[in-house]
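Convert to structure. Protein one:
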Amino acid sequence: MKSLVSGGGTGGHFFPALALIEELIERNIETYFVGSYRGIEYRLREKIPVKSFFLYSHPFMGRSVVDKLKALMKNSLASFEIAKLIRREDRVIAFGGYASFPLGMASILKRATLYIHEQNSIPSQSNRLLSKFSEKVFITFEHSRRFFPSKKTIKVGIPIRKSLIEGLRISREEALKKLDLEDKPTLLVVGGSQGAQFINQIAKEVFLKTKWQGIHITGERDYKELRDFYKEKGLKVFTLPFSHQMEVIYKASTIAISRSGASSITELSLYGIPTLFIPFPHAIHNHQFYNAKEIEDMGGSMTLKQEEANVEKVVENLENLLKNLEEFSYKISTFANPFACRQMIEYLMR
């Protein structure tokens, strides 16, 4: 028996898959990764610690009729290609999205045992389809239960990379020193693995208005502009396009502004960072809004729709988080599950 894990397209699908692979390796379970040439997983392929296979899989949702037909053809061909690797006794774990669909379909063709993991509150179309043939459906948000058969649905949360769990042992003092920041409240701004132009621009106004110390993960596109802006205005904002040492970033942060992808929410929760979520308004099925609302309803965050977010409202919300920091920090910290990988593997090995 071997395990085949697929997840990619975006960081939200890829990094949880990577976390599960780390745990599978520790247990000496033969594991392979399957992804797409189009996704973030191919750009970060050197970080995948097992043999990997990349397919010409294509996204389907939100595309033109012609592009959907092309996606169906390419995904079908990709399914037949990867099916050659699968045996009936294998375990297949699909983390959703177009990058996982070919492996999921191939597992059905070969009658291997299929498990799926849904990161978001509103599941992808691929996971909704694959769930009909899966052994178990692992979910992150309670909101997702209504979309899957209740008898096979288990809430485990998102698998978290070991580097982030181990990073909890870093002291805040050590993290601040590494980033050359002072021991004072620190605002983290992060828009996801690709950055977020709206959040980047409003963050400039927030830092200019408040003069707060901060950390801003900008994405590649806006990095130089924002770095130069903060330097010109004399603002103490540590700026970087992307980071592979998020454990240091989180440890140094007091509060945050973020999009509300499931992985971002989970990581902020793990470190107990009260957050103002500004959901990406064009996310499929508006799932980022429902992700954020579940945390807000728990009392661990605040949510502003992008169309309502101006600098005054953003600052007002952030000041409320700072004013009630301990309460918000405790409540958001109850969402993440550091043992998600372990729990998933217990089901896989049955």
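Protein two, convert as well:
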Amino acid sequence: MKLVALPAFADNYIWMLHDGPEALVVDPGEATPVLGALQSRHLTLSRILVTHHHMDHVGGLADLRSVLRGEVQGPATESIPSPFLPMRAGDRTTWRSARISVLDVPGHTAGHVAYVVSAGDASANMLFCGDTLFSGGCGRLFEGTAEQMHHSLQSLAVLPGDTLVCCAHEYTLANLRFALAVEPDNAELIHYQARCAQRRAAGLATLPSTVEQERRINPFLRCDQPAVIAAAQQRGATGSDPVQVFAALRQWKNTFQ
């Protein structure tokens, strides 16, 4: 299995997984990058996974259906362009030699789901998390609550550390500027920011990250750490409860320049 990040719009990634003859894509906000990748690699599109209903994740579905030789799978409780197979937490399916598990991760949208894909060999699992988890950050709360998003992020943080985190946007450097404001003395974060800056300067993606990397540097996964709690309390958190800490961080990030 080969994993490819297809750039779309200004900063989206459409993730493609393929085994040579067939391809699966995640959150095709536009069709053109997918069609180009299929043609250049001589692939048949046989599965589409959708994490949530926002147009920059579903806008390419209509134009891809003519070449799709399989199913669209998407969150059961969101309005996804039909037809699609509704997916809920705990659902499991297969594609080629891969196994796919579904997690509910509400917060960014009310019915957002994530997919954990095991390629069936010795390689690490892949997490397709849409706009729930970003490297160094997390999605805005458009439809859910801080409590929901905190719970969703914690459900991702307990995945095996080598799980590849395949986020849907190249927001990493902006997120890390905020993360450094929260934890300026985090040595792992300082090193990671420098490495990501080098990759972007070379025109390379910062993604995928890993779950273990995010545990070490992402403030939204570190709401129980003393430095993160102290920073959140300076921004309005009234205690050390992780949900309060998360809510204060998320509000701070909304206006961070």
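DSSP finds nine helices and 14 strands in the chain. Residues 192 and 217 are 8 Å apart (CA to CA).
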